[in-house]
Amino acid sequence: MKAFPLTRFLCLALLLSSVVLTGQQRYQGDLSSYTAAEKAWVDSVFSTLSIDGQIGQLMMIRAHSDRGADHIAHVKAEIKKYQVGGLCFFQGTPEKQLQLTNEYQTLSSIPLMVSMDAEWGLGMRLPDQTISFPKQLALGAIRDNKLIYDMGAEIARQMHHMGVNVSFSPVLDVNNNPNNPVIDTRSFGEDRYNVTIKGYQYMRGLQDNGILASAKHFPGHGDTGTDSHYNLPVIAHNRARLDSLELYPFQALVRYGIGSVMAAHLQIPALDDRPNRPSSLSKPIVYDLLRKEMGFTGLVFTDGLEMKGVTNHYGNGEVEAEAIAAGSDILLLPESTADAFTAIKRYMNEGKITSADLERKVRRILLSKYRLGLRKTRTLPLDNLRGHLNTAGAYALKQTLFENAMTLVKDGERLVPINDLERGKIVSVHVGLNAPTAFSKRLDDYGQITHLNAGYNLSSADRERILAKIAEDDLVIIGLYSDGSRFREKVPVTAGVLSLLRGIDAKARMIVSVFGNPYSLAALDGSAGTVLMAYSRDEVAQDAAAQALFGANRITGRLPITASPGAVFNAGIETSASFRMGYAEPEAVGMNGNKLAAKVDLLAREAMRRKATPGMVVLAARSGKIVYEKAYGYHTYSRRKEVHTSDIYDLASVTKVCATTISIMKLVDEGKLSLDLPISNYLPGLEGSAVEFLTLRPMLAHRAGLRSWIPFYTETLNQSGKPSSQFYRKAPTGDFVVPVSENLYMHRVYLDSMWHKIYNNELPNEGQYRYSDLGFYLMAKIVDQVSGLTVDEFADRNFYRPMGLTTLTFKPLKKFPKSRIPPSENDNYFRHERVQGTVHDMGAAMLGGVSGHAGLFGTARDVATIFQMLLQEGNYGGRQYLRPETVRLFASRYTNETRRGLGFDMKQLNENRKMNLSPMASERAFGHLGFTGIAVWADPVEDLVFVALSNRTYPSMNNNTFGKLDTRLRLHTAMYESITKHSSFEDRRSVQVGKLP
User: Fold this and answer.
1) pTM of the model as a whole
2) Which domains does the chain possess?
């Protein structure tokens, strides 16, 4: 046999030589030698075994946890009567399987070796109850091979909780046959090096954490069109070809410590030319090639012996006896244990199997059990089993794997990542599954998407219906979903689908996302210029695809196979993350999700129980990922309308930063404003006024000397405290056109009175810090005068619309139903009506709902996005909205100030004053609070954004329980308490905002 060229693989393998082990002891795959302790145990156990007991150790029988009493009784009888050595579990539930494992173990004098097919995790056999990681073909696209190790380690951790010792993985078949009916998505792909290094990483992840890995299906099941479950496949290649391709990954993993190999049911004439001789029953293949030539010293399992590929040509028990004679150690799923015993004993009597052969096999099995910790019977706890299996960390890993698998196969028009949200509309067409899907839901988080559905067998009328809803400037995102088949995940690209794609491509910009088998790409050659391969219709894959399209994550995957001339092996365009908000599990960004959720839930329930607020939304984002977003309670205490994360809250003074301050920053960037020139340069008519010589810098820091606020509304009430008819009407008429609330309109002339009072109010706090709304009234006026746009128009045009922030708006009732907006107050002092959808602040209301200090509404997610943009020093979605130096300037403390930046609130450094945010926050944290029960804080040191929205002012703004409980501060602290891995300056994705010189 020729030497395998393993130099390239060895270089990659050495990168893992410093892996640090956790918890479980590493499994050593070489069973050719013992330690003294191992030999003593194996000798003592072997000495107790009769011939029947030795044969029993060779048997690994089928076990289910979803079958009835008869099946359970049968398994128990086999354990007692035949002293079988192991079990292979299939379908059922985790709890029932562990319960049965505990019961079965107590029946066996020698602990049972328990196995599962867990190629993509426990979900392969226990779907919908345990986690299914990506199948190996998707993993083949990943370039960071350490992630494959991490998956193996996580599967090992879960298996220990289940009492499982053997994972029949990794699959080392090199899949170079697109029509392979049984391997396909189970292979890492068509390239021997890619299959080898990923198989090695998977094996190390399992065995470093105490689980026996099994390389399958030896000597290589990748190039066949026959399913060995039903017939015997033939591999007709010559020896040189087998050495160079099929055998290559097996030789490599044998050399580097794989603990077991599974012998497949294949006919390979170049290795054994006997007719109908499966490789699993072939001594030239199992013993001569695997054991002698390749030097394998671990366990050899047969593939399932019930499979028709092996049973069709042999009598009862002969399959099992032939497998043992060929060199296998463990008989997986014998058709009949009794027949197997009979045949093996007959073969021993005939000299086809010697007692020495049997002893060597049994000793290998016992040594393996010793190394797996199977020295004595253990009963494992069932308490909170699914909680131990389906951890947030495991879900975070699954998400990371799919994110790294995403492959941009081609992008001729450079449409990905999607950055231009203002050109045309975005239409999503879902073929094979009807929206809402996980893909469509995540797309909705990035803009206003029109969703259309189509079947694979769509008619010409369906095609025309869809095309009629698409315009020339639109961007159309196609989702092609697989048929859900277990191994193949076929995407049936029909003639009707191709006709639709060609019609859309001729009319608009088009991106095709394929949620299934990459071999499906062959049908798309010439029909799509931009294709994202997502590999599976798993909901996590769908989510990852949507985030990748909008640039929340980099796309780095490479095709693991060749599907067509237009989709070749290793194809893949890398994209840069466009610093758009993404979504992840807390564990993915170094936070403890369970701890965070428990604390936030506790604080939210306390606030609602104490009637501090009827409901709230809490959001946390770290490293650009939203990791926690949850709604609590109701819009009102009547409990009729539940709060949703999509609800739009009155943001009160957060308007100062999310509208006015960023607008001022933009105008400073453009050279249209100076922070140090008198504002009279920008506002005509201020000559001789009290504010003539004020400058923006101290105004932003609340050090301009202005009073806190002016209660304008009190002068417009009659003697009974109701709105005076001199100033108001219940409907717009004549000059009564300023909308104060839904049923109250003010005379336009009073606007002049308001501005006169602001301009000519004395400066009672000159030289002192005094929080003031009045400066922000003036700043909104400045934005209007300098830009020609009101502050709401300016912020919308320059920030909200291009960033895709559809809910950040003033006067929300013009865009959204009232049902999405929690009420702010039952006003009995001014408007005398429920304030819902119009601004709560009285002064902002009297300006028609638009002011620099209040009036903005929005969701937690959109507020968080503004602050993520600021953390990223003005960059978002591939666009620079503000210069980094401007962000740093405004988010730094004003000279000699203990709390305020320019426009932004910051952590109070004076220990004699009340803390305004979490004491755990860094000194560079910045944000703002809002009167209605709002908080938003960003911390550059921890790359953390926190948002809390509530309507604590309902039904009365005089309810101060929310503040007395310090709910916002304590929620903010919960964010920090959940951090398990702190950011470092090197790890942070953006430059330090507000860094002092």
Assistant:
1) 0.91
2) 26-374 (3.20.20.300), 406-578 (3.40.50.1700), 579-647+860-997 (3.40.710.10), 655-858 (3.40.710.10)
